[in-house]
Amino acid sequence: MWHAQGGAGSGNDLELLVHGVGGTTPEKMLGDPRTVRITGDDTAAVFRRAGDAGTAPAGTDPGSGPVQEAYVWCKLTSGDGSRALWLLLLPFMVVNLAHWMRPAAPGRPRTVRLYGLLVRLVALTLTVLLIAAACEVALDLVAWQCAGTRTCVRRHSWLGFLAPAVPGAPTASGGWWSAPGRRLALAAALPAALTGLLWYLSHRTWNAYESHRPLTLDPEPDTHASALARPGFWYGRRLVARLRAAHTAAGLLTVAATVATPAARFDHRPGGPAALDLLGRLLPAALLACAAAVVSVVCRRGRSENRLDQRLDHHLVRRLPLGALALLLLSLLYAGWSRPGWQSTGRLPGDPAFGALMLGQGLLVVALGAVAADLHRRRPDPRAAMRGLGGPAVALLGCALGGVVSGGVAQRVADWLDGTRALLPGPPVLLTWQASAIPPVLAVLLLLAAGLAVRTARLARAERDTVRHEHPGEPEDPGRTRAIAHARAMATLTDRAPLVVAVLTATTLLLGTVALTGALATRKPPAGAARHAHHVVQAMAETSQALGSWLVGLGFLLFVTWGRRAYKDASARRTIGTLWDVGTFWPRAAHPFAPPCYAERAVPDLTWRMATWTRHTGGRLVLSGHSQGSVLAAAAAWQLPPSVRGRVALLTYGSPLERLYGRWFPAHFGPPALAALHQDVACWRNLYRLTDPIGGPVHVPGGTTTPDVDHEPLRDPLAYGRTADHPLPAPVLGHSDYQSDPAFAHDRGRLLARLHPELPGQRPQERASFEEQRVAPAPEDR
């Protein structure tokens, strides 16, 4: 229950509530079935109780507590079931997270830019991998292998119009689409459409969610320990547009190369047409030149955070996808030209491409790890996850997720087309080895889950003694004690996330090396005594590949089904909502096809509301954030002008600011950043419970005249047994219902009392000048 009466405030006092993961309704947040929208739209808005809506803008309340407003932003991340398809963009979101997970490095701008450059290059290879996998399925398996084999065509009648001519029969026995090049040109529509869909989703979601301009203010001196205070942090229009153009062009160039390469290889044979041979040499050169332009665009400077950058890049950069589309159309015409005697046999030449792509990803991740280790060594943070290597680990997991899914889908489609007849060569060897990595990864996860379960059970048994000592003189209730101890032990699993990521990263690195080595060894089978061992390993790999292909099919269905349920069912959403909302909190700085960033709408909303209200009324404001809402509240507080920020109190509860964000994103939420936030706002209080799996202390000490930010851990449950105040058993609340604790109203009242006295309302001309402020140019981009 969100609403809690009481408090010490009166007069021009406002409490702005920001909910957390899973979403809620304004009625629940305000504790009143009658609410009205004060400002906003159907996507995100601020609500008040109907009884408070007629109050003067100053927010006067004759009661004992401040007027409450609820900012509801849950529709930014949830809604209709079609948004479950955003889960298919998970690899892109994961690699985008790696950009924000770098260690803090003051005074090392060049190293920071190198870190961002490496992440953007890894993200580019992930886009190429996805489109290449789609080309493998549509062009190689379907159009080249299956459609080029009459036995496979007979098993799949929908491919009949692509059937090749019967050997020895007249040319008319095959249809117009029977030529290999024309089959490839037709099948290229699928990966090209996928590229266009990714471009459309990126462009549409940016306009819908991320195009809202933040509060435009003159930049302050760079005295903050977090980049979230910079004016242009939540407005990445220029970079997203640039990366979207580059990644779209890369996807189209991948399709064009897949279509043109087999035709060019056929034309290079002795005695071939000279005109086609020349075009087959010029076209790859043009594709390479355009690819070099794509890489150069990605390597340009990253985000512009020191100013509100509303400019776009040169029109040549924006026209890059059109140039790639022109080369794709030229490649389709070139491949579709009549070539007598050309037949589709074997596989398309994809083995070297996938091998080079996987090797390049591995080298980029290793280089990223070296840069991250150097940054962490310059300013060690003992609380940073994996000693500053969280970003490279997450980038590797993103690449592995893309590779495993690509290999599993390709193997599943090959098994479906061919059945058990072994008529088709199948996907490239490297992809089949990547598909075989799925069962070992699941086995490692199961072992890890079993180990964590044993550790949690031991910790729960140890916590029972602590729970007993916390309630002296009360009758012993073994069941109650076990429930409380179990809740506390389960809450500690969040702190084991670095171990889980480290184990998965090591497993991924090992299996990736095995896959690359196995793919090379399969191309050159050994002779002599090693042949028997080779056959045994190959048989084990084939069994794992078959199991992996079925697991991918099952996992895809479960993935979409679970994602759709999560967006409709609040309880299911809370299960995965935390990690998903962490991933989509950050702007798209490395991958333009990642899911949209809801904070680029939510943070400006909160900033505008607080700035205009305080400027108009001169009143006291408590910014009250729960769970992920506390992160939005902190980000919004950083974006306020200093004159407004100093008149805002921050109340956080169930907050992952330090426990999750401080450990995994030390450059933006590390100890210096949180200490700076404490100095910037007027006052700050943080509430948490030992049974909360998400929230925790922020570890920011107070000053000589101010208390520590962290309250001592709240009691959970509020009563061990039945009491006069709790005649029925009090529930273990964990992450919810913080406002039902008496400490909430007490600390809110103390925050209001510590704020500066009320100031007179701002004069109209001052408000007008506030609205007209603009951002001054910054010396450099980040």
From TrEMBL:
It comes from the Bacteria. Residues 756-782 are annotated as: Disordered. The chain crosses the membrane at residues 84-101, 121-146, 158-178, 184-201, 245-266, 278-299, 320-337, 357-376, 388-410, 430-454, 497-521, 547-564. Residues 764-782 have a biased composition (Basic and acidic residues). InterPro entries: AB_hydrolase_fold (IPR029058). Keywords: Membrane, Transmembrane, Transmembrane helix. This is Integral membrane protein.
